[in-house]
Design goal:
Layout lengths: L4 E6 L6 E3 L5 E3 L3 H6 L4 H4 L1 E6 L10 H12 L5 E5 L5 H11 L6 E4 L12 H13 L1 H5 L1 H4 L2 E4 L2 E4 L4 E2 L8 E2 L7 E4 L2 E4 L6 H10 L10 E5 L7 H8 L1 H4 L3 E6 L10 H10 L2 E5 L17 H6 L3 E2 L5 H13 L4 H8 L4
Parallel strand pairs: 1-4, 1-5, 5-6, 6-7, 13-14, 14-15, 15-16
Antiparallel strand pairs: 2-3, 7-8, 8-11, 9-10, 11-12
Length: 339
């Protein structure tokens, strides 16, 4: 029997660290090292491992993920595993999902426990990711599943996965939807297929971004009694600051403090400004509350609604839209199906 051809692309992260002379963990392991640590992979697949970079995911950039997507799009393989750090996995996997339209499994995995600790999870996560990529149900539904994240024996849709704890082993979850599948013994147990109409529509509207340049997007979290000084700076000095868009982590179902409502509306006149729920995701309100800082007033003033996307993912989508050269009206159309 011919084994599936699986490409492992290593970017770095905790999964690829090793201790230096002081005991501090540093980037150092490559893709071959990660594969060699899991001999059972040879039974599942024909593995081809390649080290793309050795950096923590906190230092990855949009340009690097765009280049990675181009690389994945050109591969003649049966599945792709990307290993990286956990810090930005929820963002990079979502960006890959926006950029890729392949009918093979594309999976991002990582580790929470570094290789110097007892029971590091990196080898197990890599084995699980390859097992998922080789699974017949996953391969048959690869296009419907989109890019996936595999962590701690659970499979998540890139659109829905969140890092919900900074250090715990079970740091990843999809609070809105739950996992797509679970690994039990040597089996992949399917649980659901993701709802992908919004992402598919976004990908079609965005089109080819290969010629686009980076489009910096500011991310501002709004909290109790926010005075709005950063909003003032963006309004008064937007050209000097260089941002081309803004995502606001808003309160509740889509609210901002009343004292900054005017600034937020001015900002929306100057550049595409997206409102996303600081609660972590979930469809926001559209027409319930009145008042100058309510969702009704903000939407009427031209704020773009992020729907169920959390602020981190909304920022990824907005940057991608701006990089593709979409104007404010087109960007609003891309976000609208997210709810």
């Amino acid at each position: 029997m011919t084994l599936p051809r699986i490409k492992v692309l290593a970017l770095g992260g905790t999964i690829a660290t090793r201790p230096d002379a002081s005991g501090a963990m540093q980037m150092g392991l490559g893709a071959d090292d990660l594969v060699a640590a899991v001999p059972a992979l040879a039974v599942l697949a024909a593995i081809d491992a390649e080290t793309v970079s050795k950096v923590g995911s906190h230092s990855l950039g949009f340009d690097q993920i765009h280049a990675l997507a181009t690389r994945i799009a050109a591969l003649d393989v049966d599945g792709v595993i990307v290993t990286q750090g956990t810090d930005t996995l929820e963002e990079t996997s979502f960006l890959l999902d926006l950029l890729l339209d392949r009918d093979i499994p594309v999976i991002v995995t990582a580790a929470m426990r570094n290789p110097a600790l007892t029971s590091p999870d990196g080898p197990g996560n890599l084995l699980a990711a390859v097992r998922v990529a080789c699974d017949p149900w996953v391969r048959a539904h690869a296009k419907a599943l989109g890019v996936m994240a595999v962590m701690l024996d659970e499979v998540y849709a890139a659109s829905d996965v969140l890092k919900v704890h900074p250090t715990r082993l079970n740091a990843f979850a999809a609070p809105q939807t739950g996992p797509l599948a679970a690994l039990v013994e040597d089996r992949v147990v399917p649980l659901s297929l993701p709802v992908r109409e919004a992402l598919t529509a976004a990908r079609a509207r965005i089109g080819d971004t290969s010629g686009g340049k980076e489009a910096p997007v500011a991310l501002l979290w709004l909290g109790l009694d926010e005075p709005g000084y950063l909003l003032e700076a963006l309004v008064d000095h937007r050209n000097q600051l260089g941002y081309r868009g803004v995502v606001l982590g808003a309160m509740g179902g889509g609210h901002v403090p009343e004292r900054v409502a005017g600034l937020v509306m001015q900002l929306a006149d100057l550049m595409p400004t997206v409102v996303a729920p600081r609660a972590g995701g979930g469809p926001m309100l559209k027409q319930t509350y009145g008042g100058p800082s309510s969702e009704i007033a903000l939407r009427k003033a031209g704020l773009i609604w992020g729907g169920r996307l959390n602020p981190l993912k909304a920022r990824v989508l907005l940057e991608t839209c701006l990089r593709a050269g979409l104007d404010r009206a087109a960007i609003a159309e891309v976000f609208e199906p997210w709810g």
